[in-house]
Write a structure and sequence with these properties.
Elements lengths: L2 H24 L3 E5 L5 H7 L4 H4 E6 L3 H6 L11 H15 L3 E7 L13 E8 L2 E8 L4 H19 L8
Parallel strand pairs: 1-2, 1-3
Antiparallel strand pairs: 3-4, 4-5
Amino acid sequence: MDARSHEQRDDIAGLAERLAGAVAERDVVVATVESLTGGQLAADLARATDASTWFAGGIVAYSRAVKHDLLDVPPGPVVSSGAVAAMAANAARLLGADVVVGVTGVGGPDEQDGQPPGTVWFAVHAGGRTETHVAHFPGGPDDVVAATRRHAIRLLLAAVGAPVAAT
């Protein structure tokens, strides 16, 4: 592991630990639903302190079939607001979670669904509502995935009312 990868891992692990502390104080159950990150986000959260008490788990929906058949993603592009919103809302139902973050996007090097590499759609489902937004991250596939993981954990921190800025 090079120095940059180690630094990214520490940054992500630190964010996950901050989330662990925040959800423990609030008695919140968290889950993930991921495409682009292929389960790495769930693994990040599962490694955090006392994860078994606050992390319900994650769904890796890498293929279109899983998105459409398991998560009721509507027909059409899977790198979109509608797709990630359906993913998050249905993962909350399936996993019994209070807060879910969903991610779907294009790591590269090629475009997908007319979206360029680095395009990532996020959803947060909390309190019965789902909100989505798009972000664009520079770099190659590994850079995009790492940035997506960090951003997703920051979204979870914000969703549970915890400070998002690094301490």
